[in-house]
Amino acid sequence: MSDRSAALARLDALGVAYELTEHPAVFTIEDMEQLGLTGSGTVCKNLFLRDAKGRRHFLVVIPGNCRADLKSIETQLGSTRLSFASAERLQRYLGLIGGEVTPLGIINDPDAAVEVVFDRSLEGNPRVGVHPNDNTATVWLAFDDLLRIVRDNGNTVHFITLETALT
């Protein structure tokens, strides 16, 4: 089963309503803007981070127009210095490669080792867009369903508040 198929199968198994939009491979929010995808809902920016000792790993999910202030994130999480995790760690913990980072990657984290961090501004959003473990498509679903998927997998969930002043 492909990564995309596994992600969609998990959504189906949990009875999550979603819409799938296929598109050329995208690697950035700017790529998604150029394809006109950001007008379809709130596209999420996803960061895979680690603490200074590499003991804690965080998948940070924020709106695409949000500034990813690592100092603010580490303070709100009570973490040591945060930095981007390596491609090897991304593969080991979420089974993903760069450009495919998504909260749906938690389906590849059976030990629920990755802590998932959501920006509070996403709460209650009826339509957020994330990759289905493949950057050639976007899954549109309600934030509450996305949160349920992560919690169903057993991952620790945190909420933070970041500045959404990117324009």
Automatic annotation (TrEMBL):
Top-level lineage group: Bacteria
InterPro entries from the xrefs?
ProX/PRXD1 (IPR040285), YbaK/aa-tRNA-synt-asso_dom_sf (IPR036754), YbaK/aa-tRNA-synth-assoc-dom (IPR007214)
Pfam families referenced in this protein's UniProt entry, alphabetically: tRNA_edit
Q: Name one GO molecular function term.
A: ligase activity
Q: Which keywords, in A-to-Z order, does the entry hold?
A: Ligase
Every YbaK/aminoacyl-tRNA synthetase-associated domain range: 23-148
Q: Does the keyword Transmembrane helix apply?
A: no
Q: Does the keyword Ligase apply?
A: yes
**Record-stated family:** Belongs to the PRORSD1 family.
Q: What is this protein called?
A: YbaK/proline--tRNA ligase associated domain protein
* Organism name: Anaerotruncus colihominis DSM 17241
